[in-house]
Structure formats: structure tokens, C-alpha cells
Amino acid sequence: MTTEMEKAQHWQQYIPQVLDTLAGTYFGKGSVELEDPYQVLIATVISQRTREEQTTKVSNRLFARYPDATSLADAPVAELEKLLYGSSYPEVKAPRIKEIGRILRDNFGGKVPNTIDELLALPGVGRKTANCVLVYAFGIPALCIDVHVHRITNRLGWYQTKTPEQTEKALEKILPNPYWFTINRLMVQHGRAICLPSVPQCQKCPVRQWCETGNARAQEPGFKAAD
């Protein structure tokens, strides 16, 4: 009888095939392009519980008015709250990002720190946000675990975890280091296009052959793969 660990090890052997195929499907195999640390940090805080298109719109509006940490530190909270309209909980995020600006100005010369402990000490910054800053702003290997990464890697059969925190610890043990830079963007793209939260579109999934869920669904009566 196959144990849960043996099942997970079976599907884990296909990690490179899955991620290389997703890379070719969505954006090729190039390295992650580094972005401005200040913008990555603030935009990721803004993105919490907010859709991507709204995050982009709100972030661009904010950065046009406050392009750096120093200017952000002096911004009136009421004005920040207005600029954050369209994201979730602007009344909560406004004082948080103002305080982030003040801390960066007073303690880091207006620059964003590049260590996990310093990032986690900033208001409104959890592990997901901190790890995204490390990866996308500094090119430092880190695992940015959001709902897409958590959901899809469990569906693939790599492990069975209940929380993003458990997923991060599991991935640390099995994910080859080069993929730490791209797994978040790949899973976000895949989670929006095919591996949807409610009903995954396994019939047109490019990695179905290496997926526990996809293999199981392919055995169901009436399943037909897309051309």
C-alpha cells in the first residue's frame, strides 16, 4: 500500500518538468527582472486582499505623488487613504505605509533593507511580503507563498499542507534553488489561467501528466483533453 510520503515523493520528482513547462507556457525561462525596492515593498503591502489590476492602479497613483520613502514619510494619512481608495482597507494601510516611509527614512537612509528580519519588523509586512521584496527587488532566493502557490503545489501532489506557512517550510526542503526566483510568478499565472480556485481546467493544463489531481481527473468518465 502506497503511503502519503511515497505518493508525495513520486510527484516531487517531476518538479523541474512542471516548472520548466510553466515557464515556457507563460513567460519563458529568463531570470526575474529586478524592480525598484521601494515600489515592490509598498505595492506588495497595497496588494494585500486586493486584485492585481486594482493594486497596479492604486500603486501607480500613489507613486506619482510619493515616489520615495522620504516623501511618503511626510504624507498626510488622510491623503494617503484617498490615494489608496480601490484597495482593500485603505484606512488600515494608509498609516502603515506612512510609518514604513518614516522608518525607512530615519533608520535606513530612505532605502529598503534586504534582510528578512529587518523587513519583517516593518508594519504590515509578513513573510509573503518580505520574501517578495527579497526576490523581486534584490534577487535574493526566497519563497513568496501566496494562495496560488499554496493551492497549486498541493494539487500537484508535492505534499499536503494546510497553511501557506507549512507550504513554505515544505518547499524549502524540496524545491531546487533556481526555481525559488520564479515559482511565485508561474503559479500566479497558472492559477489565474487554468488552475482556478474552484474548478481547475485540467483538460487544457500543460502539466497535467505530472499532476496528481490532473491524473485523477483524467480517469473520470467523460473527461476529454483539449486539443
| Approximate helicity band | 55-70%
Strand content: under 5%
Mean of pLDDT: 94
The CATH architecture term of the largest domain is Orthogonal Bundle
Number of strands: 0
Gross morphology:
elongated
CATH superfamily of the largest domain: Helix-hairpin-Helix base-excision DNA repair enzymes (C-terminal)
Q: According to CATH, what is the topology of the largest domain?
A: Endonuclease Iii, domain 2
Radius of gyration: 20 Å
Tally the helices: what do you get? Answer: 13
CATH class call of the largest domain: Mainly Alpha
How is the main sheet built? Answer: none
Which secondary-structure class do the elements indicate? mainly alpha
Distance between the termini: 35 Å
Poorly predicted tracts of residues:
none
Number of domains: 2
- The string of secondary-structure elements, in order, is HHHHHHHHHHHHH
Quaternary structure classification: single chain
What does this structure look like?
- It is a single chain.
- The mean pLDDT is 94.
- Helix content is 59%, strand content 0%.
- It contains 13 helices and no strands.
- It has helices spanning 4-12, 15-26, 37-47, 52-65, 69-73, 77-83, 90-108, 116-120, 127-138, 147-156, 164-174, 183-193, 212-218.
- It is elongated, with a radius of gyration of 20 Å.
- It is mainly alpha-helical.
- The chain folds into two domains: 4-30 and 144-218, Endonuclease Iii, domain 2, CATH 1.10.1670.10; 37-138, Hypothetical protein, domain 2 (Endonuclease III, domain 1), CATH 1.10.340.30.
- The two termini are 35 Å apart.
- The longest helix is centred in the middle third of the chain and has 19 residues, at 90-108.
- Helix 2 (15-26) crosses helix 12 (183-193), helix 3 packs antiparallel against helix 9 and helix 10 (147-156) packs across helix 12.
